[in-house]
Design a protein that fits this description.
heterodimer; A: mainly alpha; 14 helices; B: 450 residues; mainly alpha; MetI-like fold; 2 domains; 69% helix; 2% strand; flat
């Protein structure tokens, strides 16, 4: 014991050198990772327009980019896009959470003939490029008359939620970790499966419930491919992601580049907060799923 | 003998069913109606009636058109009285194919319903013969929230998957065997033409085949680099942060994980503009006098490929860090102590203990991220857009199969070739998944690390 103490107190020069090196290395990497984010925040406050600058720090700062983003409705109607996305996100979040929880619970807790088949089908479907279904989905939605005007919102909600039942793995992994003996005890006391699900399992699964709610809420904010395929040229129904993408197109970039940065910051702030808040659940969910 | 008879199979139901059970071969639900489950029987019969109505009103017509996919072109007729051209409604092969596929799915669903109701009728018949109590309709409804709750919970998600994933996939797969393409202007009327497109895409000497094999090679190279570099570098970073001597662990993790919190399309678009010939990076390097002309990040194929892989490290390493930190801490400490005792250095420990252990535990994650990378649309599309593209090609030098598929369908309208590419992507993924999974130690020996 004394030998160990002596060893600890007497700094080993080689160890110190390694330690310093490690911290310098981490600092360099951290700078690389944080710089682009820092840069976009700076750009959002930059007074000079356009995307081509010759200095890292802006020459003068302004809030006009944010003001323009939320008041200039003539070219790119950002407030409208924001509302579109918010409505879609709320519905998507509720429906897909219900789907994912239902499927996850059924596969984890119930035993039925279709169970294995369902899991195998889900695995096979996961191997197809998501795009293949996407284009045909557009025609399906079109033949239902959902690709015109205000119905596009409904079409997007359907498109974002319909197949979420395939993404049950993390939730199922979490449910698997809740001891079955709790359910069995409740069933002996006369509870139905529905009561077990709503009164016992769901309250015990708050972390994964929050995780699912938040990730499905974020999906419409960050997806832009699907929205683009379904909205096509109907600019009144654009979501935030398409709007931001458009700001970087040739015809807008000189006028809107700094506004793009402002929009990116506006979208990122809530997502970052949600993310930092749910990080723990994310890690737990993943390690649960990996353990099987 | 008795047991054999009581087995509830379709064969037994047809051979040994009583009159009501046999009647339900034609009038679905009759067996339930005759065996004390009147409400259920009526419901099933109504479904059959709806199906027959559908088939007579449109279903048969749609099936009949499916082999030919429509013949009549949109016509133009001169109307003397009004003095204008009147357009006659032509056939639209796209819709014929879509409704044909939907009709086939409906027929399959009804056949399934038929089999299920036959078995159920026979089961009820046996129960009646033995004098067992038959559950009432109310009890059946209640069981949907108890023993049969999976039906209640899974019904909507399954319908969603069927309608918006399986039907569209079958529909797209069908397109691969047609002439639906801008080529020869087959955009409204097209025909089946078998495996012609497959032959064109796989033929290495044709222009299309040459592009396909090029794209496939880059897709696999990309997926290998993107998956394993992210995995190994992310693990090393996690190990460095986890070292006992590293200070402020939480702060370092926060720095890296912050980049996940920014939506991916935002950070990728920023990277793209920063690396343009006139973008921030080139301008700053030129101002500093380090380079005389802009670096060709997106205009030279090799540069673009390397840039994409490097940027993907920026995107991907934090995810690896987040996902494997917890698992790394689960590695039994005794393994490390024993290795140190034997005089192993950090590199040996990493390659002999950490890496094998992690590979063993996270194989499913690795496979799914490999699949995800082959289908990684966002990174390529938002960064390089598949470019640079050689003159006359539809596929760029950095296009993956998925981004090429997108270009072929959405931009170029070569739908049939796009569908072929989609099917081939699926084939490649299936092969890769099966090989890696079968060769992984977690499949061969489940207790290797116990």
């Amino acid at each position: 014991m004394t030998a160990a103490n002596v060893k600890k107190n007497r700094a080993n020069p080689r160890k110190v050198a390694v330690n310093v090196l490690v911290h310098v290395f981490l600092a360099v990497l951290a700078v690389i990772w944080v710089t682009p984010i820092f840069w976009i925040i700076l750009t959002s406050f930059r007074a000079e327009p356009g995307s081509y600058v010759n200095s890292f720090f802006p020459k003068s700062y302004t809030l006009n980019n944010y003001i323009k983003l939320f008041t200039d409705k003539t070219v790119l109607n950002f407030p409208k896009m924001f509302m579109n996305t918010l409505i879609i996100a709320v519905f998507t979040c509720l429906i897909s959470t219900f789907f994912v929880m239902s499927v996850g619970y059924s596969l984890s807790r119930m035993r039925f003939g279709f169970r294995k088949t369902y899991m195998n089908i889900a695995m096979i479907l996961g191997l197809f490029p998501g795009f293949m279904a996407m284009i045909a989905q557009y025609y399906l939605l079109k033949s239902m008359g959902l690709t015109e005007g205000g119905m596009i919102r409904l079409a997007l909600i359907i498109a974002y939620t319909a197949t979420t039942g395939l993404g049950f793995q993390i939730v199922k992994g979490f449910f698997d970790t809740i001891p079955r003996s709790i359910d069995e005890a409740a069933v002996i006391d006369g509870a139905t499966q529905w009561q077990v699900f709503t009164k016992i399992t769901l309250p015990l699964s708050k972390p994964i419930l929050i995780y699912t709610l938040l990730t499905s809420f974020m999906a419409p904010w960050v997806d832009f491919i699907f929205a683009k395929v379904i909205c096509r040229a109907t600019s009144s129904q654009y979501t935030v992601a398409i709007g931001l993408w458009n700001m970087l197109q040739k015809e807008y970039i000189t006028q809107w580049y700094t506004c793009f940065a402002a929009g990116a910051v506006v979208v990122s702030i809530p997502i970052s907060i949600l993310f930092l808040f749910t990080q723990k659940y994310y890690v737990n969910g993943m390690s649960g799923a990996v353990k099987g | 003998m008795a047991l054999m008879n009581e087995k509830i199979t379709l064969k037994n139901a047809i051979a040994k069913g009583d009159s009501m059970t046999k009647l339900s071969m034609i009038l679905m639900g009759a067996g339930m109606f005759g065996h004390k489950q009147k409400a259920k029987g009526i419901l099933v019969f109504l479904l059959e009636a709806a199906f027959i109505f559908y088939m007579i009103s449109t279903g048969f017509h749609q099936l009949a058109e499916l082999p030919g996919l429509g013949e009549s072109e949109q016509g133009k007729v001169w109307n003397e009285a009004k003095g204008i051209f009147e357009y006659t409604q032509g056939d639209n092969s796209l819709l014929i194919l879509l409704f044909g596929v939907v009709t086939i799915f409906i027929i399959a669903a009804v056949i399934l319903l038929w089999v299920l109701q036959m078995k159920h009728s026979y089961k009820l018949q046996l129960a009646c013969e033995k004098g067992e109590r038959i559950p009432t309709f109310i009890e059946d409804l209640k069981s949907l929230f108890d023993g049969n709750m999976h039906i209640t919970l899974m019904a909507l998600p399954c319908i969603g998957i069927l309608v918006f994933n399986i039907v569209p996939l079958v529909y797209m797969i069908c397109m691969a065997f047609t002439t639906y393409s801008k080529e020869g202007s087959h955009l409204t009327l097209f025909d089946w033409n078998g495996l012609v497109q497959f032959a064109r895409v796989l033929n290495m000497n044709g222009s299309l085949g040459r592009q396909f094999w090029g794209v496939l090679r880059w897709t696999i190279v990309w997926a290998i680099f993107a998956t394993f570099l992210n995995y190994i570098l992310g693990m090393i970073l996690a190990l460095i942060i986890n070292r006992k001597e590293t200070k402020a662990k939480g702060f370092w993790r926060f720095c890296f994980i912050l980049s996940i919190a920014v939506p991916q399309f935002v950070s990728l678009l920023i990277m793209r503009t920063m690396l343009q010939p006139q973008g921030a990076v080139n301008v700053m390097l030129q101002n500093a006098g380090l380079i005389s002309s802009p670096l060709p990040f997106w205009t030279n194929a090799t540069w673009a490929r390397v840039t994409i892989i490097v940027i993907n490290l920026w995107v991907g390493i934090p995810y690896t860090l987040l996902q494997i930190t917890g698992i790394l801490q689960n590695i039994p400490a005794e393994l490390y102590e024993a290795a140190k005792m034997d005089g192993a250095g950090p590199a040996t420990i990493f390659f002999k203990i950490t890496l094998p252990y992690m590979l063993f535990v996270t194989m499913p994650y690795l496979i799914s991220s490999f699949v995800g990378n082959i289908n990684n649309f966002n990174v390529i599309y938002l960064l390089s857009g598949g470019g640079p593209t050689n003159v006359g090609d539809t596929a760029g030098q950095t296009d993956l199969l998925v981004t090429w598929l997108y270009k072929l369908t959405v931009d170029q309208q070569y739908y049939n070739i796009g569908a072929v590419i989609g099917i081939l992507t699926f084939v490649v993924l299936t092969i890769v998944t099966l090989i890696t999974y079968r060769n992984s130690s977690s499949y061969k020996n489940e207790e290797a690390f116990m």
